[in-house]
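Open question from group meeting: does this chain pack into something compact, or does most of it stay loose? Before anyone orders reagents, we agreed to write out a predicted structure and look at it together. Recording both the input and the output here so the notebook holds the full record.
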Amino acid sequence: MMAEFANYGFNKSHSAAYSVVAYQTAFFKANYPAEYMAAVLSHNMGDIDKVSKFIEECYRNGITVDPPNINTGEGKFVALDGRIQYGMEAIEGVGTSAVEAVVEEREENGPFDSVYDFASRIDSRVCNKRTLESLFQAGAFDSVNPNRRQLLENIETLLSYGSRVQEMKESNQSDLFGDGSGSASAIDEPPLREVEPWSNIERLNKERELIGFYLSGHPLEQVPRGGAPFLLALPRPRQAGAAGRPHRSALRRASPPRRNGLPTSGDDPSHSCRWKT
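Structure tokens returned:
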């Protein structure tokens, strides 16, 4: 029966094609691991759970995945010098058109020097408030300002500044005390309100919400060496019943074994039992 099924169920041409694809896949993964994993991550960008799984695979194979960066990142995941740059299109809330505008502007006029430089060069109608919020919280602006909370809480100020600069460029005008070039230098950069940065846990949690993984650190990285396994091995706190008494589940665990309602012969003599008559 198996031989008869093999005549049509899985013919030689089918198995040969699969073997070629399997060989090519194994070759690239063994000889170009970073490039191979970058392609796999880019192919699965729409599923943040799969992205997280494949990033874990990267770390197991010694491949570093760098956080998103407006000055080095692309829309897709790319490999460079054995490392993978996180694809900005994989960030929750960031669209393809916004990333394409950022990459195109960067390639034409160089990297962004500051968040003001970014706001003045990127059209806010393409890279809107929601997109900026996602980029800030994911750490894409850490290279120009590592205080993600400050950027997020001053987002309205930055958008307003960028809109005024872009309006000036479009009208090709300058205010009375400008330099006459209609550039961003004719408008003063508004100061950002000073705020305390997020704690390490807050920063990492927001990062994980948007990119599905801890990339810039880990919540347990400040635990002393050898402490993490101990913390993970701690038992859950015992639940308490009324008046602070141990929960009945704890009492059941502490009760001696029984057979047919009677204690077994192997019971600990220290366990006492009162019988009803």
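Observations to bring back to the group:
Strands lie at 65-66, 78-80, 83-85, 258-259, 262-263.
Confidence is low (pLDDT under 50) at residues 225-256, 265-277.
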